[in-house]
């Protein structure tokens, strides 16, 4: 009988081993996935159990948790709606967005870098205090951008091209995150519904996400860079300069903006076409280059990819399988090209930084409650889309565009500003999308900026990038250079 | 039964050796250790939830400690050579169960609820340990149980079928496993497992020779003789009847699995296991097709995250919430009182293991499983050491039933098998389960006393 007993022992061992395996699978291997399931409210409960870390700019909190005497124990407080796009909100009822979501593990003290604190907390019975997140944002520049946009709807991104550090990120209209953080579920729910219903989408960070924008003429920077990078063109290469241009394979004619003659000569150089922002030469240039070459270049700049800064950006789009007419339209930023302001800033950053894009980043440092640094990202090269000489050639075109061209409203006395405006059409009768992107000082760039204004800046089809977007960029640049 | 002579001799030796009840000394120290841990658990729960220590700790700590100490002294007088590890291990589990139930009570009270379980669990614990003590005190030799083999069968079957009877049968959460008499609900299936184990052991010992006779060979397999299939068919029929009438796969699997293992050990014929499992699987499969309730349990087991089953009434909501709790606990757990196990329905009974897994983590799960394994392996050790077949089979059955029940319940919560209505031995809130499992412990302690007394001259062990 003992022989059979031994076999039974093996069966029992197998049963217990299967329980060890199943519980290990659930509690370790699948634990993160189960924790992320939206039906799992434990992560939210957890987040309220500890004092959530603050989000800081220059040591001053813009979002922090204060003790409250209700069941939640801590109330989240937001200092200023001008940071709403960056912080997002943290709400018991509506979840979390922005850095409140992407930095959640640090803010709640659950990050693996805090393992020893967690063990310590387990032994002592005191909960882990969340880590604080210090941002790269410059409050002076942020306020300048916020004020410069005023009542306009749109977004501003300003970053340091040498490090990728984001100096300002504004999305308008903003929202008061305190309205969602309130502990009364009905109030929070009503406020959330109201913000969601608002057609100007205050909850969307338009600098990196949302429905994306047609870039219009700022896309010409990319086409010009692709042309020069191909080796077949220089800044001085000329293109035919007709007053009207029939889109290949169609009976549709296009014109330059404002029916401009673009210098009035039979041909025009790429540099001048960019300076005057002429559509016809770029349409032809695009068709000659071909959509493959432009797409390659666009992807090198980061189109088609999301970036985690650590907010997650939406990927910008260069359309696939276009015919020649569509390629022509897309070469001055129309048709189905769609971009984020962050992507446009990254494009300008490559021009400013000798062809290299540094990874955009919002995080200066993450500091635990005992003041040790948990995470301090160092500047990191993101991509190298163009050569130094191409960058230099395009930079000169952009300097001319501001100094002697149609992007003049960004010029600042005593500073060389490089830039490009854009005024994108959105279909018949729809208001334009207004753009400016550029950098300064052009010889030694300290700031790259991208500005987008929706809805024609309230002027329908009367608004222009140079009249509305360029002055915003100018104020941001002035704030950075303290001029 | 050759052991009759040797055990008489053994008792004589034991009388002489009573001066050094070494095992009992080990046991009492281990018990003190277990009492200490139980007190620590309760203190941690109070500190992390109500943030103050109160005398309530004594209410939930002392009765178990006193009852276990009394049982310890009964063992000193009546079974001084009984196994020394079983009792402390069971006390650890039972105390942990009370602590976690108390912790869930505190959460219920904090949320304004009134339905509490911990005190009732304490009362049942005392009753159950008293029953185990009575077993040790009055059952001077387990061999005496052989006289009641067929009475056990009748008692077992009556208990097993009783929840399906009109008037007293009660359905809770879809499974018909309870009887309700004068307002008290009871799960008779728990006690049936003891009666049926005694019956199986007695029956198989007398019939093992004829059951082991080989019948015809069929495609290379030696089949049992047709007439010997009678009993296995009968048990199979009863199991399916339980499955159909009580709508619980776990209970019928428990009895059928127990029977198969015992018949295998008694006869050494693996063919019984093969045929039996095949019969059970086809029966269960058929039941899951025909019976909505059983089928839903299968669906929930295979696709718990599917919103279709998650949102369905009686669907996978509870299972998934339990998995969330376990995942929340991760490796080290949230600490007792630190998690939110009350989010899972029936956190104090069917899902107590998910509650503990959340608060004690994978580390705690392993510790709990290790305690079960310890209890089972001490029981099996007794089975190995006994020379007489009835004792062997009885101990095997009693140990295996704890192992199998633990597997079915914890396996149900962790998705190894479909979820069933069985309870986690010693941990889950519920009087019938505590009573039955403590009686099993009483029997194991009683049998182990005579098992080890024969090997006194050999290597000393505890």
Textual characterization of the structure:
The complex is a heterodimer of chains A (483) and B (462). With 483 residues, chain A is of the alpha+beta class. Chain A has a domain at 216-362 and 381-481: DD-peptidase/beta-lactamase superfamily (Beta-lactamase, 3-Layer(aba) Sandwich). In chain A, 38% of the residues lie in helices and 17% in strands. Chain A has helices at residues 2-29, 31-36, 42-49, 84-87, 98-102, 104-107, 115-124, 139-149, 178-181, 185-197, 219-229, 270-275, 279-289, 291-301, 324-330, 341-352, 388-404, 465-481; strands at residues 55-57, 60-67, 74-78, 90-91, 95-96, 132-135, 154-159, 166-172, 238-240, 244-246, 253-255, 267-269, 357-358, 363-367, 373-375, 381-383, 418-424, 433-440, 447-453. A six-stranded mixed sheet of chain A has the order 3-2-1-6-14-15, with no helix packed on it. In chain A, strands 8-7-19-18-17 form a five-stranded antiparallel sheet, with helices on both faces. In chain A, a hairpin with a 6-residue loop joins strand 10 (244-246) and strand 11. In chain A, helix 11 crosses helix 13 and helix 13 (279-289) packs across helix 15 (324-330). Chain A is elongated. The termini of chain A are far apart. Chain B has 462 residues and is mainly alpha-helical. Chain B has one domain (3-453). Helices cover 69% and strands 5% of the residues of chain B. Chain B has 16 helices and five strands. Chain B has helices spanning 3-17, 22-49, 56-78, 86-110, 118-138, 149-161, 188-212, 229-246, 249-267, 270-290, 292-302, 307-310, 317-329, 352-385, 389-413, 431-453; strands spanning 169-172, 175-181, 184-186, 214-218, 221-224. In chain B, the strands form two sheets. Chain B has a three-stranded antiparallel sheet, with no helix packed on it. In chain B, strand 1 (169-172) and strand 2 form a beta hairpin. In chain B, helix 7 runs parallel beside helix 9. The longest helix of chain B is centred in the C-terminal third of the chain and has 34 residues, at 352-385. Residues 1-5 and 453-462 of chain B have low confidence and may be disordered. Chains A and B meet through helix 1, helix 2, helix 3 and helix 7 of A and helix 2, helix 9, helix 13, helix 14 and helix 15 of B.
